[in-house]
Amino acid sequence: MNKNFLRAFIFTFIFICSIYAESIYAASDFLEKGIENYRNENYEEALALLIEARKEQPDSSIAAFYLGVAYKQLREYQLAEKNLRDSLQLSPPVKDAYIELAEVLYTQNQLNEAEGWALKAETEGINPPNAVFLRGMILSKRGMSEEAVMTFNKAKQMNPELIQPADFQIAMIQLKTQNFKDAQKTFKAIEEIDPSSELASFAKEYEKSLSRTLDMYKTWRFSIGVGYQYDDNVILKPTTSIPGVEITGERDSSILATLGIIFNPIMKEPFFFNCQYNLYTNTYFDTNTHNLMTHTLSANPGIYIKNGSISLPLSYSHIWVHERQYMSLFSAKPGIQFAFLPQHIARFSIGYEKRELLEAPIDSDEDRDGNVFTASTGYIHPFSGGKGLFNLLYEFSYDNTDGKNWDNIGNRFTAGLLLPSLILKTDFILSGEVFLQNFKNTHTVFDKRRKDNNYTLSINLVRQLISGLFLNLQYSYTRADSNIPIYDYDRNIYTAGIEYRF
To answer: Which of 139, 257, 325, 420 is deepest in the core (most CB within 10 A)?
Structure first.
C-alpha cells in the first residue's frame, strides 16, 4: 500500500509540475512573440500578445515596458504612461523607460516631469544624446528658443546621427522666431547631409515654401483711393429748430482721396514693429468751409509673449479745415492682448491723448485743448481661418479740457463683425458704437450740465474687382442725442469708392 501511495504522489507531483511549466512556457511565449512582433513593427499584433503576457506575468518589468512602448507606437499615450511607470516601479526597473516615458509625457504637455525623466536618463548614461535632444524639444515647446538651440547643438556634438533631426528642429525654431534667412540656410544644410532621407524631403518643401513667402512678402505696402460721398448734414444742423436762426446748406457731396504707406519689417522674435502714414482729404462741392485734410503718422512697437503680445501704439495727426491749420492730436495707448482660449482673445489697454486746437477760440470756455485719459477692455474672436472677425470693446475716457464747456467723462461701447465673402465674394462689415458723455460743468451759455448720447451704425461692403483693386460701398448713420438742442442732430453718409493696394 505504501508503494501505491508513493506512486500516486509522484504521479500527481509530476502532473502539477508539468502544468506549471506549461503555464510558464505559455507566458514566456506570449512575451517572446510580443517582443518579436514589436521589433518587426507589427504593433497591433504585438499589443495583443503583450497584453496576455502582462496578465500572465503582472510582476514582469519587461512585459510592462514592452506593453508601454507598444501603446506609445499606437498613440494610446495614457495607457503607455501607466505601463512605462510600472516598468520603472517593478523589480528590476527597466531604465530604458526613462526616455520613453519622457517622450510620452512631452506628447501630453506634462513638460516639467518629462524634463525630469530626460535629465535622469542623461545623468545615469541611458542614451544621453537622445535625452539631450528630447530636452531641446521640451525647451522649444516652452518657447525658450535660445536655450533649445543650444541644447540641440549639444545633442549634435554627442551623436553625429542627430545632426539632421537637430538641424530640422533648429530650422523650425528659426521660422517661429522669424529668422527666415537663417532658416533657409539650415534647411539647405539638412538637404545636403542626406538628400535621400525623409527629413531632407521635408526640409526641401519647407525651403521652397519659405522662398515663395519671402518673395511675396513686402516690407513696404502702399494704397491709394478715391471716392464719392453724399452727406445729408455736413454742418451738423440741429434736429430741432432754433428760434431766430435759419440754417441751410447742410446737404452736400464731396470727393474723398486717400493715401497709405505701411512699413512692416521682418524682425527677430520676440520683437515686432510697424508704422504707417495716412493722408485723407474730403473736398465738398459747395460747403468748402468744411473741407478737410488729415495727415496721420503712427507706429506700433511691441513684443510677443506666450499666447499674446504687448504693444505701444503711438499716433500723431495734423488736421487742416478750410485750408487752415485746425488741430493736432498725439496719442499713446500701451496694451496687452492674449488668447485665453483658441480663437478667443482678450485685450486691455490704457491711453493718453494730447489735443491742441491751433486757433484760439473766441470764448475761453469753449477751448477744447486738453488731455484725454482712457482705459479699455476688449474681446476679439477670429473665425473662418482668420478671414472673419467679431470684436467687442468698452472704453472709459476722461476728457480734461481747458474750456469749462467741454470737460467730460465718457463711456464708449463698440461692436464689430466682419463676414468674409458673404455674397459673391464680397466682404460684409457691420459696426456699431454707443458713446455716452456726461459733461462735468454747467454750460456757461445754456445754464445746464450737458449730456450727450451718441449712436453710430456703419455698414460696409468690400469687393476685390481685380488683383489689388477694391470697391468700397459704405453707409453710416449717426444720432447725437443731447439735452442741449444745438448739439442734437442726425446724420446720414453714403460713400462709394475704389482703392488700389500694392
So the answer is: 139
